[in-house]
Amino acid sequence: MPIRAVLWDIxxxxxxxxxxxxxxxxxxxxxxxxxxxxxxxxxxxxxxRRLTDRNWERFSAGEVTFEGQRQDRVREFLGAPAMTAAxxxxxxxxxxxxxxxxxxxxxxxxxxxxxxAATYRHGVLSNASATIQEPKLRTLGVxxxxxxxxxxxxxxxSKPEAAAFLAACEALGLPPGEVVYVGNxxxxxxxxxxxxxxxxxxxxxxxxxxxxxxxxxxxxxxDRLPELxxxxxxxxxxxxxx
Length: 242
Hints:
Blueprint (H helix, E strand, L loop, with lengths): L4 E4 L8 H15 L9 H20 L5 H13 L6 H17 L7 H8 L4 E6 L3 H10 L8 E4 H4 L6 H11 L6 E5 L2 H10 L3 E5 L13 E3 L5 H6 L12
Parallel strand pairs: 1-2, 1-4, 2-3, 4-5, 5-6
């Protein structure tokens, strides 16, 4: 059956999340007088990301609220367990302002959205919150490119759970076999989409992350996506798309 819609991940797929996070955190640490505390900006970011992942897992498991995982992340990063919720929230808010100032799409994002606009429907499935992703997409000027925006926080289930992918397909009004998911994580995005019955594309911009999961299509850049979707493969030939 032909693919009728592209379901997108946002962070580090269309939006350069790592680039913005690197620049934003580095600037924030300078402003907070902490520039030399964590070594290089890359080392500071690596610690911040580890804490982000660990606390997000706690949130996903229902052990802490969305704001709570942010506050705990700040406390751990600063080594300040006695920091109040208000203080941690304020620190995180200052970081977010620097992060937002560095927001940018990847150079290949708009060209691929333009190239696929007339042929496919488009939606977003993100493991973040709609309160974060909605304004982000509007600021980046692409919110109107997507029919639906489905986010884990509001949905109550996150990738790689099949229920998250199926909810996004339901929002589009399409069976999973008519939807392709494009994301930058081989397991959370690609393997999860494949297991839910969607066609799966892993965007591996840097390479060197090991082989693609079985049944997953791997591309090094979004410029390769139109050709892949048009190929006579699992995605169907161009003449079969309607």
